[in-house]
Amino acid sequence: MKGIIYVAENTVNGKRYVGQTRRTFELRKKQHKRDIERLDLKLYRAIRKHGWDNFNWAIIVEGIENIDSLNRLEQYWIKELDTFKNGYNSTTGGEGYILSDEAKMKISKAHKGLHWSEETKRKMSDSQRGRKNPNWKKFGMDNPLSKCILQLDRSTKEVLAEFAGAREAERITGINHSNISQACQGNRKVVGGYYWKYKEEEREEREEIAV
């Protein structure tokens, strides 16, 4: 089973919890629900206080191929959303995974400037209606030699993110770059739960519609 990074947001106060799982998203939520009364963690104390229905759950990244990427991305999102000090995470994540200085530098460069906009927050609130992966941002667009790739929502075909290339997409999402390339070339329909296209192809389609 491929990995998932997900977030739970308290709609009362806006505080969040970031988690990872290699099970299905629905099974992981059911496990959380079972643990509410038996575990004394920040997340469960908050759910007991505010109620299960006042938490929205959404997938941030899915289709993560290996445990190192899963741990790395969980650590990143806990830090990015500040859920350890000002949220419901009891640890900094990663199941004890220790990042090397080189890995830290690569992650910092890859995610530089990434933030959750007001639009992203709205998408989080819409998560129960199937909106996923609010992590939409352009990455590495300054490289003129890159063949830009678009990540699209499987249901709405909305563009979620734009990457400089398949390897950049893998570094950010954890989804295998070869599979992403195959999807862009039309050899695979869906990879990691998303549609993928070359940006140039998307532009040509828009121009054809306009004509």
Automatic annotation (TrEMBL):
Residues 1-90 form the GIY-YIG domain. Gene3D superfamilies: GIY-YIG endonuclease, Winged helix-like DNA-binding domain superfamily/Winged helix DNA-binding domain. Keywords: Endonuclease, Hydrolase, Nuclease. It holds the Pfam family NUMOD3. SUPFAM superfamilies: DNA-binding domain of intron-encoded endonucleases, GIY-YIG endonuclease. Residues 117-136 are annotated as: Disordered. Residues 117-129 have a biased composition (Basic and acidic residues). It comes from the Bacteria. The keyword Nucleus does not apply. GO terms for molecular function: DNA binding; endonuclease activity; hydrolase activity. To endonucleases of group I introns of fungi and phage. This is GIY-YIG domain-containing protein.
